[in-house]
Amino acid sequence: MDITTTSPGLNETRSRDTAPGIVVYVCRSCRSEADPNPNADPRPGATLAQAAVTLGQAEGVDIRSVNCLANCKRGLSAAMRSADGWSYIFGSLSEDAAPDLLVGARLLSSAPDGLMPWRGRPDILKRGLVARIPPLNFTEETP
Ligand code: FES
Structure pTM? Predict the structure, then answer.
């Protein structure tokens, strides 16, 4: 079966992928660090996730909503997975951080060494960095 004839939407998405090899997962369940009101509706994480998914669709970056990233005590959270490079966990994001996530995804996608460069990285992705995770094939010489 020729998938191109059955999935034109998929091909369309791939052809305008502006951060190839990157998927951003945004937690839709996070509460605000400043105001962790359990009854907030919508939750601040849901607001960020919806805005990021919508912006990603408009600008060709694969951004997906996820229920929880187990980073709940660090405020609004997102994970940035890289097919070949390092992956990142961020916390302490704001509800309006969607554009910053797109900038970060594009930086990581175009990084020749697979590491998101510090230069050009949005401040919120500097302050909110929780951890980075090496790619599967990574090994490091030890003395
Ligand atoms: S609720 Fe968002 S990381 Fe757990």
Answer: 0.88
Cα separation, 81 vs 110, whole angstroms? 14
Mutate to test the pocket of ligand 1, among 26, 68, 74 (most ligand atoms within 8 A of CB): 68
CA 29 to ligand 1 centroid distance, Å: 5
pLDDT tens for the 143 residues of the chain, in order: 333 333 444 445 456 899 999 999 999 999 998 877 888 899 999 999 999 999 999 999 999 999 999 999 999 999 999 999 999 999 999 999 999 999 999 999 999 999 999 999 999 999 999 999 999 999 988 87
Q: How many Å lie between the centroid of ligand 1 and the Cα of residue 56?
A: 20
Strand order in the sheet with 87-93: 63-66, 22-27, 76-82, 87-93, 129-133
